[in-house]
Amino acid sequence: DVEVLARDRLGAAHDAFRALADPTRRAILDLLRGGSLTSCVLAEQFGSSWPTISRHLSVLKDAGLINAEKEGQFMRYELATTVFQDVMQKLAAWTQPLSQESKQHA
Q1: CB count, 10 Å around CB of 10?
Q2: Who contacts 86 (Cβ-Cβ below 8 Å, separation ≥6)?
Q3: pLDDT at residue 5, rounded to an integer
Q4: CA 63 to CA 14: how far, in whole Å?
Q5: Per DSSP, what are the bridge partners of residue 67?
Q6: I need a surface site. Which of 19, 56, 68, 94 has the fewest CB within 10 A?
Q7: Are residues 25 and 19 in contact, defined by beta-carbon separation less than 8 angstroms?
Q8: Alpha carbons 62 and 27: distance in angstroms, whole number
Q9: Looking at beta carbons, which pairs linking 43-51 to residues 24 or more positions away fall under 8 Å?
Q10: Nearest to 90 by CA among 3, 6, 1, 2
Q11: Which residues, in sequence order, are bridge partners of residue 75?
């Protein structure tokens, strides 16, 4: 159903915006721009405790912004681009004026 898909995409965008609101999570995404990294390497980059970094990684993963794969004792993380594309489309849509018909339904 198209309505369910639209709601799912809106929920994904909401989760992504919530995840992107935190500066530590944005820093993690910046680090992952250079390629995939293990949880150990990521944790070493921050002065936070491991549980704190683990929570940030979990929020990013739940929002669909990163992928995780088990590698030995560690998890390896990399950027996931699909949700970023949805977020960019949402941001771009906000720059366009509403049509008269859309304004009447808003």
Answers
A1: 12
A2: 9, 12, 13, 16
A3: 46
A4: 8
A5: 78
A6: 94
A7: yes
A8: 17
A9: 48/24
A10: 6
A11: 70
Reported residue count of the chain is: 106
Token readout for 59 is 């929020």
Q: Which two tokens stand for residue 105?
A: 């339904």
The one-letter amino acid at 69: E
Q: Which residue has 């009447």 as its token pair?
A: 104
Here the tokens at position 4 are 């369910």
To the nearest 10°, report the CA torsion of 37, 18, 96, 4: 100
Q: What is the mean pLDDT of each run of 10 residues along the chain (106 residues)?
A: 51 83 96 93 89 94 94 92 79 78 57
8 Å CB contact between 67 and 78: yes
